[in-house]
């Protein structure tokens, strides 16, 4: 009997051996959560693990995480696989609290892509830094956003308001809520960053705003390839986002020019971030000549541009969700108008705006249903234990903000817009970590008070003069998240009609 070609037999045996080894390896790799006895979403592919829908750009991460969350009721957490890496999605607000506060040492790093060489701006943002660099960058920002500085918000809004009114009065057609939001934030953020007048309502778009929009589109908004890079930087060579770095020169020039202007006008009181940084450095013994040197300009420019880019998108999105919701709920809008009408628009103070209870409840409920950041991703940097499970360094932890906010066991009838959920009494009945639109703990959003104050003041102005209505000749559709985007981006423009009030 012919026993066959021994070389072919050897090759056959080798291939079978390799297939068996690969099979055993994959079983072992994707058996990680089973071995730990953690309820988990199975890997459906050896390439992308459990995240087929993200890999194929069928769902945004926020919605994908909500789906996993909803599929495991009653569990404190759920394991899954992002490519070959085991990740853990939290379901229990108490465990969320542990990750953000008590176990901060193990989870102090955000699990985001950054590349110093290609993205020298984004890689200097506190969000992507860790350790001493993070502390320093964060403290520069928080020192520039003190309560005393925020008191200037109503004054800044009243300076911008006439151009906003002209824009609204001249708009015969429907307005896109996000465009209105970015018109507001681009102008406000420019004046709060560099102290420059850069009205977002002029017909010609400013260059600084164009950069901000580019940053948003590539990094956090509409480009689905970035979702893959955030999950695993392996994908960087494929998509290679070079973005704000190309604009380094522009930001540095803008910072130098604005600083020169501040120095020449002798204006010590401007609330802008650049001036706050300047004053702190002058107090520490540096001179204006020191600050005008190249390295100092680069450093100042990094902090100021980060503020601009951070404030531009998140705040505009939140504002657009609020305006759209007010068009959906005219009764809520009327009640809110009655409340804000008590404030004299010419001399509104931040203290007064902050004391408006219904405005606070309405905006809190908007951020519950439409949190601009739908999830947080933390990287475990040292092994630790979470509710009896050992979490190993290198794994990623997902805090699914949107899923927690829409959990029917925490918020009855979660799809219903109900500001009363945020009355003092109702708020105290819930776990505080079941509501985290700005995160929490040492990394909590440093721009929170700026964003909330700005949105509340703008709304107080707007509702005294205008009515926010459904779009003309179009249906007011529910807000549905799009399939891409790291932040919550609606799948269609949120159109509105904003009409002058008949007083
Ligand atoms: C409605 C508007 C905003 C929302 C919903 C929002 C949301 C968030 C969230 C969820 C985080 C993560 C917090 C954590 O890890 O616990 C964050 C971080 C951050 N936000 Fe905001 N944000 C908003 C506005 C702003 C503004 C106006 C600024 C400008 C200063 C800003 C700057 C930052 C920075 C620098 C971080 C990183 C902080 C760190 O890691 O230490 N955000 N934001």
UniProtKB/TrEMBL annotation:
Required co-factor(s) are:
heme
GO molecular function list: heme binding; iron ion binding; monooxygenase activity; oxidoreductase activity, acting on paired donors, with incorporation or reduction of molecular oxygen
- Family annotation (Pfam families): p450
Q: Tell me yes or no: is Endoplasmic reticulum among this UniProt entry's keywords.
A: yes
Keyword Heme applies: yes
Q: Which UniProt keywords apply?
A: Endoplasmic reticulum, Heme, Iron, Membrane, Metal-binding, Microsome, Monooxygenase, Oxidoreductase, Transmembrane, Transmembrane helix
Q: Which Gene3D superfamilies match?
A: Cytochrome P450 (1.10.630.10)
> In which family does this protein belong, per the annotation?
Belongs to the cytochrome P450 family.
Protein's name in the database: Cytochrome P450 CYP427A1
Q: Which organism is it from?
A: Nilaparvata lugens
């Amino acid at each position: 009997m012919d026993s066959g070609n021994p070389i072919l037999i050897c090759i056959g045996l080798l291939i079978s051996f390799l297939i068996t080894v690969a099979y055993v390896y994959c079983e072992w790799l994707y058996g990680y959560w089973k071995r730990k006895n953690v309820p988990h979403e199975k890997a459906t592919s050896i390439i992308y693990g459990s995240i087929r829908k993200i890999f194929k750009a069928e769902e945004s991460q926020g919605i994908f995480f909500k789906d996993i969350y909803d599929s495991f009721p009653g569990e404190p957490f759920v394991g899954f696989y992002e490519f070959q890496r085991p990740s853990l999605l939290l379901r229990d607000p108490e465990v969320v609290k542990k990750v953000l506060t008590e176990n901060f040492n193990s989870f102090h790093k955000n699990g985001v892509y950054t590349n110093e060489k290609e993205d020298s701006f984004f890689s200097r943002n506190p969000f992507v830094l860790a350790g001493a660099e993070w502390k320093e960058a964060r403290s520069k920002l928080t020192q520039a956003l003190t309560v005393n500085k925020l008191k200037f918000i109503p004054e800044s809004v009243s300076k911008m308001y006439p151009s906003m009114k002209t824009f609204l009065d001249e708009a015969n057609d429907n307005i896109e809520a996000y465009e209105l939001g970015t018109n507001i934030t681009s102008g406000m953020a420019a004046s709060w960053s560099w102290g420059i007048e850069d009205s977002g309502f002029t017909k010609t778009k400013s260059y600084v705003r164009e950069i901000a929009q580019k940053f948003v589109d590539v990094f956090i908004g509409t480009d689905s390839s970035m979702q893959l890079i955030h999950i695993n930087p392996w994908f960087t060579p494929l998509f290679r986002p070079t973005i704000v770095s190309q604009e380094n020169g522009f930001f540095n020039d803008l910072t130098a020019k604005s600083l020169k202007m501040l120095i020449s006008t002798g204006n010590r009181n401007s609330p802008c971030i650049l001036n706050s940084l300047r004053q702190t450095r002058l107090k520490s013994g540096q001179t204006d000549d020191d600050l005008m040197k190249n390295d100092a300009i680069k450093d100042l420019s990094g902090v100021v541009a980060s503020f601009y880019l951070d404030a531009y998108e998140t705040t505009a999105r939140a504002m657009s969700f609020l305006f759209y919701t007010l068009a959906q709920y005219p009764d809520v809008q009327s009640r809110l108008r009655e409340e804000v009408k008590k404030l004299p628009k010419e001399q509104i103070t931040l203290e007064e705006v902050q004391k408006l209870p219904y405005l606070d409840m309405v905006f809190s409920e908007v951020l519950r249903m439409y949190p601009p950041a739908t999830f947080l991703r933390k990287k475990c940097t040292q092994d630790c234990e979470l509710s009896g499970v050992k979490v190993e360094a290198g794994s990623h932890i997902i805090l699914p903000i949107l899923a927690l906010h829409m959990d029917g066991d925490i918020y009855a009838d979660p799809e219903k817009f109900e500001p009363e959920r945020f009355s003092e009494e109702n708020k105290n009945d819930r776990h505080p970590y079941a509501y985290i639109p700005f995160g929490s703990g040492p990394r909590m959003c440093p721009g929170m008070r700026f964003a909330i104050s700005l949105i509340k003041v703008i709304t107080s102005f707007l509702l005294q003069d205008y009515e926010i209505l459904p779009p003309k000749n179009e249906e007011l559709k529910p807000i549905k998240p799009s399939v891409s985007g790291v932040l919550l981006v609606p799948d269609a423009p949120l159109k509105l009609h904003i009409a002058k009030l008949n007083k």
